[in-house]
Specification:
about 60% helix, 4 helices, three-stranded antiparallel β-sheet, mainly alpha, elongated
Length: about 160
């Protein structure tokens, strides 16, 4: 069931008799369809609510990435000042803890990943930005899930 049944039930060719020509036309009592290039935009209430929800989720993800950026940057700064506080060279802790260079590289990769998330959440007008943001969020959540599973199984 589509979110806007009135929008979906009105055939395109009913507006002007030609599928290639679609002027601004009235749809029900809720709003107007506007054609911009090959995209159909609607001023339907459900479309506006959907866009507001997307914007709110985009802002929320950008703030989460900003928080992760602050945490990862703080960890990197603390590591560069006091490397003796970290268990470098410990057994079974993963590749990041094998050497100082590996841990610094892991911190820098996390910082770059957070910057990518912030850029993806702020560039909402670019093509495929929604897909890029969704992929970034899913991959980030999968990394956290894998980390939690590994911590549960191995107890580290």
């Amino acid at each position: 069931m589509p979110a806007c049944p009135e929008l979906m039930s009105t055939p395109v060719c009913a507006f002007a008799g030609s599928p290639r020509y679609l002027p601004a036309a009235r749809v029900g009592s809720h709003g107007t369809i506007h054609v911009h290039g090959n995209r159909i935009r609607s001023s339907e209430p459900c479309y506006e609510n959907k866009m507001k929800i997307r914007l709110a989720l985009r802002i929320l993800w950008g703030l989460c990435c900003l928080l992760l950026l602050l945490v990862n940057t703080g960890d990197y700064v603390q590591f560069t000042k006091h490397p003796e506080l970290y268990p470098i060279g410990g057994e079974g802790l993963g590749w990041a803890y094998e050497s100082h260079e590996n841990y610094a590289l892991a911190c820098l990769l996390a910082i770059v990943w957070d910057i990518i998330g912030i850029i993806a959440s702020s560039c909402h007008r670019f093509r495929y930005s929604g897909k890029i943001l969704l992929i970034h969020a899913v991959l980030t959540l999968l990394m956290f899930l894998c980390l939690q599973i590994c911590m549960t199984i191995y107890g580290t």
